[in-house]
Write a structure and sequence with these properties.
Blueprint (H helix, E strand, L loop, with lengths): L1 H29 L28 H10 L3 H7 L3 E3 L15 E5 L10 E4 L22 H7 L2 H17 L4 E2 L23 H16 L4 E7 L12 E3 L2 H5 L2 H12 L3 E4 L3 E2 L2 E2 L4 H11 L5 E4 L8 H5 L18 H8 L5 H17 L15 H15 L1 E5 L12 E5 L7 E2 L29 E2 L3 H8 L4 E5 L4 H8 L4 E8 L16 H11 L3 E7 L13 E4 L7 H9 L37 E3 L8 H7 L16 E11 L2 E10 L5 E3 L2 E6 L9 E5 L2 E3 L4 E8 L6 E3 L4 E4 L2 E8 L8 E7 L2 E3 L2
Parallel strand pairs: 3-4, 4-5, 5-7, 6-8, 6-19, 7-10, 12-15, 12-16, 16-17, 17-18
Antiparallel strand pairs: 1-2, 2-3, 8-9, 11-18, 13-14, 20-21, 21-26, 22-25, 23-24, 23-29, 27-28, 28-31, 29-30
Helix pairs in contact: 2-12, 4-13, 5-6, 5-13, 6-8, 13-17, 14-17, 15-16
Length: 756
């Protein structure tokens, strides 16, 4: 025992010396601070004297003790991150895990491990395609949000967090909660929809699942990073109160519900200042008003200064190679030395990082590569998420679920013979077994286009052994129509690939797929459309199709999941987390701001809709969408009754009963909306709560929902408080945001001011 204690510090010191020696060449070549390459470090602190390793102490106290034991140069090493892959002429730090998102050297002599960072919200992603890690991919973030199922979101987060740990990572850059203000946004598929309550609740559960593995999760991109066109230069303009009731409310709720160890500031400007040097965002809102105790890391390439960024709240520069220079390298060292950045500020930056590491178990549960991964079990987690998130948008004549006895089924388009589409960019999880289709899309990042090798065609064939199930690629619309003419049912798979750094050119399906669907539906009225898209799309063919299933990007088990829903093995229970417009003319910005071909000019995006995002905008303007927020059909029916309200300790509680009045087992998502009768809100009503319930035929269940008081209030910037106006409010128990038959009651609320 004693010999082990004596040898361990020596081993740690030796490992540190070897790592530093290996880094010397890179450091000198890059012009980074000399401390990053110094071999002559203070002696390792004996294990018995490492008071910060006492797990009975609070995370705050442990961070204080560890910080006190550090040299200045060790402190500075914690605030500068490296990319985990070669980038241009810059070589990765040899200690970083190859093809990873990032690396921050630890302090081995103090027993503090390095931080190994991985993208992203759908699983463990690789930052190169020549030797990618093959891991399990969740369906898109919108698909998970469409489940409206808290437990599923947690389970998915726990699964990808486990794969991150098994892969040697202790920081996961997952927790995207940017609201869907712009349906053409290329990253919408990573996020959780347009409503702050729904988005925050689902993302918070995913973060809790990730962090259950002693892995730090990252809430991002803070804030109002709502389109990709011009993302490095655009200036998002929105008022404080409007922001606090929409985008910022989503972030605030995520913090309260999940306490992520880190927050990633965004690329864009907000009201003039870059997000990563915004005193308003980082110091005033995040750290002061919300009391956030974790650390703020930059997005990759989002840092533009040293002094302003450090003093205004940025704690760690991520992957310095993406920035013009290492702003938190020599420049920060000099800024602290000459007083432009106070020593207390540097200490706080490091303290926050250390506190998160202790608080989330990163120090006490060190990671290592090569952990076991149960890919079969994880595939089931992903497939279940995909099944629950699929939204049955239309089902004329009960064409779905597919009936037994079909003689011929024709499957058309979207490479449905071999796999399901994935979104592009940093969140892309390379599939086990490789992409089912190669050579498509951008040759470089955010491409190439990847298909998870889960074949819808094979899954359909397995469930229709007596039928002729044939595939047509759909390239020739006329030929596809001829092949479909005599089928008992036709399944047209349509797709729209989106990815980070590029917004969709329009909301229309690309590559003449609208014409394909029209031609096939004209030839055979029993045409079912399965949509694999990153967000809302237009459907000029909706009236001609028999059914539409929104499958999103369905992840590792997507093909199997689609077949299980089509054949009724799974009763669809997904509900839309975003409004589908009839046309772009219904949007607050019918034309996307900025020029995707010219990022040399700064421009502003005026979010004049304020907090009226998504369905709230449609309500405010009296617009009828193609499909409303919250919409989704089932293979059974549900009835609501007994809506009642009570108030206790300033909290509004709503109760009601749900009954399955149909013939098969299913899950329903009853939604509660609140509308003021006298007071003026940003929009006529807000989502106030929901539940997801599974019921057998004839079964009923009582449901109770507690309403967050902020959803009944307006934010007042002057007093930094929320104010509920005295008066009458209508509560609606509905199937969607546009449910004309919603049950309702009226209640009276007393005036109240509070600061949660």
């Amino acid at each position: 025992m004693n010999s082990e204690l004596n040898l361990r510090p020596l081993a740690i010191a030796l490992a540190a010396a070897l790592t530093l020696a290996a880094a010397t060449v890179i450091v000198v070549a890059a012009g980074l601070p000399a401390y990053a390459a110094e071999a002559a470090m203070p002696a390792a602190v004996p294990v018995a004297e490492r008071t910060w390793m006492d797990t009975s102490l609070s995370a705050d106290r442990r961070a204080e003790l560890a910080l006190k034991a550090m040299t200045q140069k060790e402190k500075l090493s914690w605030v500068l991150g490296w990319f985990g892959s070669d980038f241009g002429d810059k070589k990765r730090n040899p200690a970083a895990l190859p093809f990873s998102a990032g690396y921050i050297p630890g302090t081995p002599r103090l027993g503090l491990p390095a931080l190994f960072e991985t993208d992203a919200g759908l699983g463990v992603a690789s930052q190169a395609t020549k030797t990618p890690r093959e891991r399990t991919s969740l369906p898109s973030g919108l698909a998970t949000a469409a489940t409206w199922d808290r437990e599923l979101a947690y389970n998915g987060g726990a699964m990808i967090g486990a794969e991150a740990r098994a892969s040697g990572f202790n920081v996961m850059l997952a927790g995207g909660v940017n609201l869907l203000r712009e349906p053409r946004n290329g990253r919408n598929f990573e996020y959780a929809g347009e409503d702050p309550l729904l988005a925050a609740t689902m993302v918070a559960q995913q973060i809790k699942g990730i962090q259950s593995n002693h892995v730090i999760a990252t809430m991002k991109h803070f804030a109002v990073n709502d389109q990709e066109t011009g993302r490095f230069i655009l200036d998002a303009r929105i008022g404080d109160a409007e922001n606090r009731m929409s985008d910022l409310l989503a972030f605030q709720m995520v913090l309260e519900q999940s306490d992520p160890g880190s927050v990633m500031c965004a690329y864009n400007r907000l009201n003039g200042a870059y997000a990563c040097e915004s005193d308003y965002l980082l110091n005033q809102v995040l750290k002061k008003d919300w009391g956030y105790k974790g650390y703020v890391m930059s997005d990759w390439g989002a840092v533009h200064s040293t002094v302003a960024a450090a003093n205004n709240g940025l704690d760690q520069e991520s992957a310095w190679e993406f920035d013009k220079t290492a702003y938190f390298g020599v420049a920060l060292e000099e800024a602290v030395a000459n007083g432009h950045v106070p020593q207390a500020r540097l200490d706080n930056m490091v303290f926050r990082i250390l506190r998160a590491m202790f608080d989330k178990g990163v120090v006490d549960h060190p990671v290592a590569e090569g952990g076991a991964i149960d890919f079969a079990a994880h595939a089931v987690v992903s497939r279940t998420d995909a099944e629950e998130g699929m939204v049955l948008l239309k089902n004329a004549g009960g064409v779905l679920p597919l009936k037994a006895g079909a003689k011929k089924i024709v499957v058309i388009g979207a490479h449905a013979d071999v796999g399901v589409l994935a979104g592009g960019g940093s969140s892309l999880v390379y599939p086990v077994g490789g992409s089912a289709v190669t050579g498509i899309g951008p040759a470089s990042w955010p491409g190439p286009v990847v298909y998870h090798p889960s074949s819808p065609l094979k899954a359909i064939q397995a469930r229709a052994p007596g039928a002729s199930v044939v595939y047509h690629d759909g390239v020739d619309a006329a030929a596809a129509a001829r092949a479909a003419a005599d089928a008992d049912v036709v399944l047209v798979f349509a797709q729209q690939w989106t990815g980070e750094s590029v917004d969709a050119a329009s909301l229309s399906l690309p590559d003449n797929q609208d014409a394909l669907i029209v031609a096939v539906a004209k030839a055979n009225p029993k045409t079912v459309v399965v949509l694999e898209t990153g967000g809302p799309v237009l459907m000029p063919w909706l009236g001609q199709s028999a059914a539409v299933l929104q499958a999103w990007y369905a992840g590792t088990g997507g093909g199997e999941a689609i077949a299980r829903v089509l054949f009724g093995e799974v009763n669809p229970s997904g509900r839309l987390p975003a409004t589908f417009p009839v046309s772009a003319s219904q949007l607050p910005r019918p034309v996307l701001d900025g020029d995707p071909k010219d990022e040399s000019k700064r421009f502003t995006v005026d979010y004049h809709e304020g907090a009226a995002v998504g369905y709230k905008w449609f309500d405010l303007k009296g617009l009828k969408p193609l499909f409303p927020f919250g919409h989704g059909l089932s293979y059974t029916q549900f009835a609501y009754s007994g809506l009642a309200a009570s108030q206790k300790d300033g909290k509004l509680q709503l109760r009601f009963k749900v009954t399955n009045t149909g013939a098969v087992k299913g899950k329903d998502v009853p939604q509660l909306y609140v509308a003021p009768q006298g007071a003026k809100w940003e929009a006529p009503k807000r989502l106030a709560g929901w539940d997801k319930v599974e019921l057998a035929p004839g079964e009923s269940r009582e449901v109770s929902v507690t309403v967050d008081p902020r959803l009944l209030a307006m934010y007042d910037s002057g007093s930094k408080s929320w104010r509920i106006a005295k008066g009458s409010y209508k509560v609606q128990l509905a199937r969607s945001a546009a449910d004309a038959d919603a049950a309702s009651i009226n209640l009276t609320l007393e005036a109240r001011t509070f600061k949660p």
